Amino acid sequence: MLRFDLQFFSGEKTEKATPQKRRDARKKGQVAKSPEVSSALTLLLSFSFLLIGGKNLVAGCFNIFIHCFQDYLRWDVTIKNTQVLYKELLIESAQLIAPFFAIVVAAGLIANFAQVGFMINPEGLKMKFSKINPLQGAKNIFSFRTVVELIKSILKISVTSTVVFLIIWNQRGQLVSLGEKNIWDTASFIGSLILQIGVSASGCLIVLAAADYFYQKFEYEKKLRMSKQEIKEEFKKMEGDPHIKGKRKAKQRELAMKRMMQEVPKADVVITNPTHFAVAIRYDINTMDAPLVIAKGQDHVALKIKEIAKQNKIMTVENRPLARALFASVEIGETIPEELFNAVGEILAYVYYQEGRYKGMMT
């Protein structure tokens, strides 16, 4: 008990962040995000694309060279021919490069959306002089975060270097014999080796990026932690905020209205004013001591109740004095008062008679 009190008054941040604080942090652009995920995924998809479609890319480049040496060199040097040549080369080059750029853009979007979802952060565009503060910069250089980033960089360099070394070491025999091969075979082998190195290294970076993301998420959650006092103050602030109160009451009214409308199809009869009031009555002799008001409304709500009653073939009976009396004196979920028993009983008897069914009525 003493320990709890000490924690409470000392402001120790031991509690998870509230939804409100998470929303505020997100508005400021503070989210759990690792830049390593985006770069690693982009690298992996780029090399994978080259591994799958690299031959088509090389073939396209050769076609451009062939057209240049066989066709374009024979053209006369004129302004019109230069414009046509530039246009054709631009289109052919764009067709070759467009899929690669599309992969890069898609990888960046997927990586960011997977981490933080859809988010537009105008706060990030604002000028903050604290970012160019030399004292703050010096403080950041010797911070714990800088040490973590240094360890990450050393780990990435070590892992990628090891992967590159092992792949090259396994192909050392082929590399030594390159001098005996023709130019095309040499280029094909080197290109294949580069792609193998790229895919393997980026695959390892994906694993490191995933680990970094979970670390960033842990640090983010740790940074957002709140003390019990902060939670209490936030709760008081939200309770006293008229906007929050209004939204809460509006939501409560909406839910109550929805529940009430769901009860209307269970009614035996709807008593109306006929236009201004509507009261839905339900009575079951086996389970109820008296008829129950399960829904009531005025003006627009009354019209909605009558509409639902019509859709569910529930009889509507016009009785202006009774409708006004029930609306004014009986709340939803309450039984009708004793002085209205006879009036309601007569209407229920009439409804049962019209529908060809009978329920024992109260006396």
Nutshell version of this structure?
The protein has a four-stranded mixed sheet with strand order 3-2-1-4, with helices on both faces. Residues 1-10 and 359-363 have low confidence and may be disordered.
**Count of helical stretches:** 13
Based on helices, strands and strand pairing, what is the structural class?
Answer: mainly alpha
Spatial order of the strands in the main sheet?
3-2-1-4
Can you summarize the main beta sheet? 4 strands, mixed
Q: Percentage of helical residues? A: 55-70%
How much is the average pLDDT? 80
H-E order: HHHHHHHHHHEEEHEHH
How many strand elements? 4
First-residue to last-residue Cα separation: 61 Å
Strand content: 5-15%
Spans with pLDDT under 50 lasting ≥5 residues? Answer: 1-10, 359-363
Shape label: elongated
Radius of gyration: 38 Å
Features:
single chain; 363 residues; mainly alpha; four-stranded mixed sheet; 13 helices; 4 strands; 68% helix; disordered N terminus; disordered C terminus
